[in-house]
Amino acid sequence: MRILLFHADMLEYETTRKALRNPPDPPGKYTGGPLVAVFVSVEEDDSPLTVEAAAGEILKYSLDTVKEDNIVIYPYAHLSSRLARPEKAHRLLVLLEEELNKTGSLKVHRAPFGWYKKFTIKVKGHPLSELSRTIKPEPTIEYEGSKYPLSEAPKTGAIPSLPGRVTASGLLLEKLELFNVLSCSSWWLDQFSSRLESRIIAVTGRDRVKHELLRSDHRPGSPLDALRAIIELLQAGPGRSGQVTVYRLAGCPSQTMYSLPIDGSGEARSVLDAILHRAGSDSLRTYPEGELRVSGQSFKILYYENSSGPQTPIGAVSGETVILGPLWAILYAVLDSEVSIASRGVTPYLPLWLHPVSVALIPAKTGQAEYAGIIAYELARHGVTTVVLEPPGSIGQRIRQAAKYWIPMTGVVGPREVSTGTVTIRKRWKEGEQEVLAVSELVEQVSSQLASTGGVGLRLRSLP
Ligand code: A3T
Fold first, then answer.
1. What is the position in ligand 1's atom list of the atom closest to the CA of 40?
2. Which tens digit of pLDDT belongs to each residue from 80-102?
3. What is the pLDDT of residues 415-432, one digit of tens each?
4. In this structure, are 106 and 171 located in the same domain?
5. Ligand 1 atom closest to 88 (CA)
6. Whether residues 61 and 196 fall in one domain
7. In terms of residue numbers, what domain contains 295?
8. Which phi and psi (to 5°) does residue 278 adopt?
């Protein structure tokens, strides 16, 4: 999201004509001041989290910097070349208005969306009266009193060691490169958790997901510990019926938990099924004796189970609510189910929507690195996170490197691909096959598969 902030004596606008066929807001005009005018371009990868961050910036500017409580939000499609589609842009601007109104101490006006407008602004002209900000969608995390963007948060032993009850394939898990990556890098965990979150949003169809950062000294060592801590906080907090809540423990991404309402439509079950995409619902069980009592309320523990019996507790169920998590327990379950499938000789894989990196591009020689970079840029622009694995290393070595990380799609580009504008693609879930795709076909295929879960779209030079 890009914003321009103006501290002005006066703003006057009037809609002139429609800029969209069906503008979501009626036409209108406004004259007022003094005020803070916020010109906003909503960008493709913005989310409610971006809105939260933008509201924070606007409040800081208005209340602390220029001490002005009159705010106009002005949709302005000219600050970015990566604009969000109108429907999403409008939704997020309405959300921004609501966020600002939450303080209760501001007068907030939102100018009509989807119209051409004539406007006059009289900017005050003092040094801080014009400001521009780029708001990144990345959430921040608080750790030991300081705020960090998630990707720069201090690495805090990301996944705790295996809990008492080791899964049948637990030993195998520790041999997995992917598992080792997960246990030492919070980048991967953060990416997993944001994808899981997008999936939850996609399945539940709710775009109003609430984030709660929990300040707690508690670093739960077992999933049951973590569940108990979340339930206690849930009970202490205000009622949040019908809402999807994502709880993060400060500085500890692996402990992220999700609370979902069950409203008759089996949403939580669909989310779980989607997560354990090949294991199926019969791998998730509650047991009569598996009960967690917190302040008199009883929660049934939801276990992930494989062929050797109940394994990791993956959540708790009570009344109208399902609590899923912590994140690391969910990941254990997913990896465990894939590894048991792998023990039958099938290649394990994560669904495209869950894996933090969708495509690995492998230029055969440095001569094709630039072409690979262009494809990576195109993919990232469409929300597809891509890594380019450049030489040194033979093609085979680099294909194996991508495979160690279970990257769902690998594309090799050599001189023939460069001259024909194509990529030779291997898909992890279609072992032994390869297909030659035009770059546009690849972009279309991957981005449409990711569309329902909102890709992140990063371009990586090496694997974090
Ligand atoms: C104008 N002020 O810009 N972010 C913000 N606004 C958007 C977006 C987006 N991603 N997409 C569409 N109109 N709009 C006027 C000028 O006078 C809105 C916004 O109101 C924009 C209009 O739709 C056409 O793009 C043109």
1. 5
2. 998 999 998 999 999 999 999 98
3. 999 999 999 999 999 988
4. no
5. 10
6. no
7. 165-348
8. -110, -10
